[in-house]
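One-letter codes give the sequence; the fold follows as tokens. An example follows:
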Amino acid sequence: MTNKLTQAIVRLYDEERFYAELVIQMDRIITDRIRTLGVCIKQNVQLYVNPKFFDSLSPKEQVAVLKHECQHILNDHISRSKELAPEVYAKGDMIDGLMNQAKHHMINVACDLAINPGIPHLPKECVFPEQFDLANGQTMEWYLENLKDNEKAKNMTEFDGHSLWAESEGE
């Protein structure tokens, strides 16, 4: 797995050095704790990679998902999500967690809608604004507001669940 991840970082370096430099600075954690990939901010930015998922991707998709995770950091999605809905990311009891799952799902989709249109070769499971009859190029806050009454959004599955964001430090 680490060989495939290293190869993807080298391809990313050849294609878009900026993103590769970001990934190189991240602590890379190979784990099956998450379904796909994810980022978390603690002392450093941590990149979590599910090896089975990553190995199942084409080389172009591997590069794309690395860019996707970088975009969450570059767009400050973790802090902005925590500001929008602190209750979603607070450590609470199981009932609180269940009540916040729907809100977390919408925030997750909104963050992905804000970044995915600018990243070619993402896996087919990823979400895009046109799937919800929404325009490209908006902020996560705009998408969140426009997803509230969107029936299509209620039935969507998440690509990267952003569950690690609750562990991230800071607001």
Q: What stands out?
A: Strands lie at 27-30, 37-41, 45-49. The mean pLDDT is 87.
